[in-house]
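User: I'm designing a mutation panel for Beta-lactamase class A and want to avoid disrupting the core. Could you give me a predicted structure to guide residue selection? Please restate the sequence first so the numbering is unambiguous.

Assistant: Good idea. Sequence first, for numbering, then the predicted structure tokens:
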Amino acid sequence: MVLSSGSGSSGGGHRSGPNVGDTVASGLMRSRHAAAPGGKHRGAETPESFARGFAALGDLALNGVQVSARATDLATGRVLFSVDDHVSMPTASIGKVLLLIEVAARLKDAEFGMATMLERTNVDAVSDSGVWQHLQVARLGVADLAALVGSTSDNLATNVLIRAVGLHSVRARTEQLGLSRTALLDLVRDKRGPDDAPQLSVGSAKELTWLFTALARGEIVDAETSARVIGWLSLNTDLSLVASAFGLDPLAHRESDHGLLMVNKTGTTAGVRSEVGILRGPRAGATYAVSMAFDDALLMTRLAVLEGMRAVGADLLEYVH
């Protein structure tokens, strides 16, 4: 899979190494234009093609849903639309991207290679998303665990990797990247007590779009680290939120399909729906982040949130295709 920053870019292909092979992006293209975390706050300069999604998010906000969103052009960094993009929102599993960055950066260490075997323990046990909890094998390589996190947001694999690299190291890496409103706060827990972090992760749409743009350009730590992270994320099977509008196969979208390439990470928990991603099409590329927090007591509220996210996706598709 190749992610490009759009026309007018330069760069070359990159293979990340042996055991990852086909599970990572085969190349990254760097844009001549640097994207920065700053940008417009409201939709005053929203292109007409984004009016539908902007209106949908506005309706949700009027009905009590907390909304934060941002989309930027992948090549130029131009803000396409934004809604409270500076606000740090609960993002559920999206913080696992920060863990994958730390894991990928450490793979250069001979003592922490892709084939290093890690064993799950009772301390790591957690339910919900992921498949490792349902498998018989108790030990897996680091790269395999990262692939599980990228593909199914595997909670058990996440906890084992956090135990291996240390949550403090993930936090230090996050600070080094200049992120102040985005963080992985804790292990994955079935129940959160009064002494636990209230959320697994938080993030601002402004910082998340910057992060994914920088990953696509090979600028997070280095090109090799960025390519590994993009590769793991390209396995993601959750296209139920913004990406539901793209018409891609949830189980196989690592190659161009109708001229579309997409990498994303979602976060889902009670009262939270969040997604950050990159969509590249024949005409343009865009980086986007949408997070919503809402009262999940009524199914109709949740369905309205999902429809709003899909509306943003439809506008993104129109922009790139």
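For picking mutation sites, this is relevant: Confidence is low (pLDDT under 50) at residues 1-46. The domain at 2-320 is CATH 3.40.710.10 (Beta-lactamase).
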